[in-house]
Amino acid sequence: MTSKLTLGLVIVSLITALTFTISTTQIARADSDKHEHGEEHEVLEQNMKIIGSAFRQLRRDARSKKFDETTLKNLERMQKSAIIAMHANEEEHITKKEDVIQYRSMMADLIKQFLDMEIAILKGENDKAAACVDEMNSLMKNGHGKYKN
Ligand code: HEM
User: The pTM is what?
Assistant: First the structure.
């Protein structure tokens, strides 16, 4: 009776251990699949896409120096996405303190331009608003040169 109980316990333990091993292997495999398909860049990529398409329109507006409600809506989208992008540093494997500071500072400079441009448009300072787009352009070049593959 006791040996039957012991055998039963051994079998249950073995099944538990096997189930655990299989599930952790599956999690690890899912992670490595993510890696291969670049899904770990999801948040940053998605928000950069939003910033990118809004920026195309912003550049057009800056060329004619004509800004309207749509420009303001685009800026709002960019501001929100840039805040998320600013905190997505781990997706780029930026984890060392100095590197995080450098990455977030660059993103903060970008956000400042988005905010300054909004205020300039609201005040009707169209030259100033257009100059913000030039600043954004150089921040983008710097940021991509440093962080984008
Ligand atoms: C106005 C400024 C910016 C614009 C318009 C912009 C736009 C874009 C676009 C369109 C992409 C490609 C997204 C895709 O995969 O389809 C991208 C990717 C990226 N951008 Fe920006 N960007 C700007 C500023 C910045 C700054 C300042 C940084 C860094 C501090 C940065 C870092 C990155 C990185 C790391 C990626 C690659 C994301 C990934 O892993 O897929 N960007 N950006």
Answer: 0.81
